[in-house]
Amino acid sequence: MLATETYIQRRLRLKEAMGSGLILFLGHDESPMNYADNPYPFRQDSSFLYYFGIDSPGLAGLIDIDGDSASLFGHDATLGEIVWTGPQPTLEELGAQVGVSECHPLSELEVLVSEATDSGRTVHFLPPNRAATILEVEKLLKIPSSDVRQCVSQELIRAVIEQRLVKSDEEIAEIEKALEIAAGMHTLAMRMSRPGMREQEVVGAIDGLVSSQGSALAFPIIFSKRGEVLHNHKHDNILKEGDLVILDAGANSLTHYASDITRSFPVGAPFSDRQRQVYETVLRAEMDAIAAVEPETRFEDIHLLASRRLAEGLQEMGLMKGDLEAAVAAGAHALFFPHGLGHMMGLDVHDMEGLSEDLVGYGDEAKRSTQFGRSSLRLARALKPGFVVTIEPGLYFIPSLIDQWRQENRHAEFIDYDQLEDWKDFGGVRIEDDVLVTSDGHRVLGEPIPKEIADVEKLSAT
Ligand SMILES: [Mn+2]
Q1: What is the 96 CA–ligand 1 centroid distance (Å)?
Q2: 187 C-alpha to center of ligand 1: Å?
Q3: Domain ends where: 138, 164, 190?
Q4: Are residues 279 and 401 in the same domain?
Q5: Where are the beta strands (DSSP E) in 55-127?
Q6: Ligand 1 center to 358 CA (angstroms)
Q7: Secondary structure letter of residue 272 according to DSSP
Q8: How far is the CA of 38 from the centre of ligand 1 (A)?
Q9: 89 CA to middle of ligand 1, Å?
């Protein structure tokens, strides 16, 4: 948990940003895997965590904008529950940790919310991420579950996004703790990956490292020699000498701030010439994109800069041709780079994507492109000090996409399809770091994790 004063100040700022009414934050409940007593690992709702900080199920928070108060709703463990769980802090004790003194049973929330709506007051709430929360809103606010998503408070969504976008020093320190765990995950994978191993062995070891530190994964691990499958969650390949693998993995700090790092490395051998060419191109794009991070620069422009660097490398490899500026504008490079350069990061690895990907990444100042590749860009807006973003260019050789484009002769003036035939078994390379926008530029967060070829080979190819 962060400092008590942090939660008090966050609620105060939110209250000041809002007009009137009540703000309702519903925490998550346990979610059953197969029956109620066998739940998935608990994950609190991120906005509840941000304003009320308590990492336990069965809670709700209410901020009275006009009445100048914040209350916590939940229940004290019964003796019957304590037999199974051991002694638990009381609701009052939990509230005190986050500066809330008004603590009530959950049943009183329903009464308070009913009274408020009956007297014409607005009850603001955020888009629920879970079906169970939608049903809770239905019960509390008497809104049919099918209408809940249409009734969320746009004013609240905007105010929360505005506030959570800018990270404090306390939050940056948490993200760097999460990065320390990620560094361990990546160096462990580089050290242990050997020919003859199944990918899952490496995944299991990384997972164990995270768990042994009392932490959890920020998102499911991507570890594969089939790096061209962007969100590849299968780990059933056997590693062979000279395979190039992608590891995209991050952990949470104990307060649930995320890290998100990608490295690509060869198994049991130095980079081959071809791997080196692709890797150096991606690394150059990544480093140039990081160098361009500063306040007021539009992230979409950095995406385009990275895209140009990738296209230049592809031209050197004989895979792209013609006017590269025009090729990137037309989206031809997206055959090899079909995703966006990065995203916001914070309490969620794609920060606040559950509130609105467009409002977080584009706001009112940018509009999402419909072009293949560029349409997947999650973040386009101008950067501000305190933003934490990922920079994660990649190059991929996706056989089915190559075949389809070749058949359509798509962007044939920019792509040498004959040369490309020979690359269809390459896989992919991605390199990703987490970057803080500072008042005069940027800072790559966390201790450096090897990414220069010599350093990667030192760890992985021995
Ligand atoms: Mn990422």
Answers
A1: 35
A2: 18
A3: 164
A4: yes
A5: 60-64, 69-74, 102-105, 123-125
A6: 17
A7: P
A8: 31
A9: 36
Phi first, then psi, for residue 251 (nearest 5°) are -125, 175
Ligand 1 midpoint to CA 169 (Å): 21
For residue 389, how far is its CA from the centre of ligand 1 (angstroms)?
9
One domain for residues 308 and 238 = yes
Residue 144 shares a structural domain with residue 44: yes
**What integer is the mean pLDDT of 293-313?**
98
Taking each helix axis from N to C terminus, what angle separates 353-361 and 154-165, rounded to the nearest 10 degrees?
70
C-alpha 239 – ligand 1 centre gap (Å)? 24
CATH number for 387: 3.90.230.10
Judged against a pLDDT cut of 80, whether residue 151 lies above it is answered with yes
Find all residues with CB under 8 Å of 460, minimum gap 6, and list them. Answer: 190, 191, 193, 265, 266, 267, 268
Q: For residue 277, report the distance from its CA to the centre of ligand 1, in Å.
A: 23
Same domain, 160 and 307: no
Q: In the predicted model, is pLDDT for residue 234 greater than 90?
A: no
Task: Say if residue 175 is in the same domain as residue 108.
Answer: no
Q: What is the domain count for the chain?
A: 2
**Above 70 in pLDDT, residue 390?**
yes
Do 261 and 405 lie in one domain? The reply is yes
- Distance of alpha carbon 438 from alpha carbon 18, whole angstroms: 27
Same domain flag for 436 and 405: yes
Q: Where are the beta strands (DSSP E) in 305-426?
A: 388-391, 394-396
Q: Is the pLDDT of residue 77 over 80?
A: yes
Q: What's 118's domain CATH number?
A: 3.40.350.10
Q: How far is the CA of 455 from the centre of ligand 1 (A)?
A: 22
Domain boundary among 127, 142, 164: 164
**Could you tell me which of 57, 69, 64 has the C-alpha nearest to residue 26?**
57
- Least confident interval from 4-8, 93-97, 227-231, 348-352: 227-231
Calculate how far, in angstroms, residue 336's C-alpha sits from the geometric centre of ligand 1: 17
How far away, in angstroms, is 324 Cα from ligand 1 center? 26
pTM of the shown model: 0.96
The three-state secondary structure class of 215 is coil
* Residues 132, 226 share a domain: no
pLDDT per position as a tens digit, 269-282: 999 999 999 999 99
Mean pLDDT in residue range 219-240:
93
Which residue segment(s) compose the domain that 69 sits in? Answer: 4-164
Q: How close is the Cα of 426 to the center of ligand 1, in Å?
A: 22
